Amino acid sequence: MNLLLIMLSLAAFALTIWAQFRVKGSFKTWSSYQASSGATGAEVARHILDRNGLRDVPVEPVPGSLSDHYDPISRAVRLSEPVYYGHSVASVSVAAHECGHALQHKESYGALVLRHRMFPVVNFTSGVAPFLLLAGFIFKAMGLMLVGIIFFSVAVAFQLVTLPVEFNASSRAKQILVSDGFIRSHEEEHGVNKVLNAAALTYVAAALYSVMELLRFVFMFLGSSSDDD
């Protein structure tokens, strides 16, 4: 069973690496395909926010590549410079996706609210869990191992909650881009799907890897418990 779990964890880890390459490849491919609307990522974001009564939410450029995010604390949409200034299908796709999170925040979308409430706890447990697990395995301290597993499971739960948040934001983005005329052809729509689906795959892969790791820790704990009996 342990060998099977290790193999599954390795497969899930390989999937996370592949997903990262895929999202970068999709973004690069569709960054060279200009959207027929001619709008930049910043213009798309501003339009979506204004249209939904979020004129007080700023759209800000940030350095880096694929560093785009919505900051729920500052209530700001932050776009990487290639997305902020870009006119490509990739740029408008990512910009619309991040605005999807702003719309979720406005509507108190359930999964997003839960994710925000979990974040302070996860921020602590995810940092402590590895040390507890390591100490528990080294010193055969079953109590530490169990607490480490519980803490790690909180981080796994956080990643699972993130999935519907990301899928919903992408669904909103696709619908808005088409309905508001930022995407005007089937080929462009295909590009939007490629970019956003590749991004979603990274979250799926990360969650799958975490679940496999959690199962491996649980079976190691159970194995150690039976050895002590």
TrEMBL record:
Phylogenetic classification of the source organism: Bacteria, Bacillati, Bacillota, Bacilli, Bacillales
Protein keywords: Membrane, Transmembrane, Transmembrane helix
Name of this protein: Zn-dependent protease
Annotated InterPro entries: Zn_peptidase_2
Species, as recorded: Baia soyae
Annotated TM spans: 118-139, 146-165, 200-222
Superkingdom of origin organism: Bacteria
